[in-house]
Amino acid sequence: NLTDVNEKMQYTNHVLNIVVVVLILLLLILLLLAIYGIVMNSGRA
Q1: How would you label 1-35 residue by residue, b for 16+ Cβ within 10 Å and e otherwise?
Q2: How many H-runs (helices) and E-runs (strands) does the chain carry?
Q3: pTM to 2 decimals?
């Protein structure tokens, strides 16, 4: 059935979009933490 395949593809795309968004958010948080740590370290030194 073509409709079944199409629905599975849309579901997979939806899941992939969510995963990509979560990964980007995690990377942004890590970057902010790294920048924060560097700024705090240089501020003390």
Answers
A1: eeeeeeeeeeeeeeeeeeeeeeeeeeeeeeeeeee
A2: 1, 0
A3: 0.67
How far CA 20 is from CA of 9, 33, 43, in Å, comes to 16, 20, 34
Amino acid at position 30, single letter: L
User: How far apart are the C-alpha atoms of 18 and 16, rounded to whole Å?
Assistant: 5
pLDDT tens figures, 10-35: 999 999 999 999 999 999 999 999 99
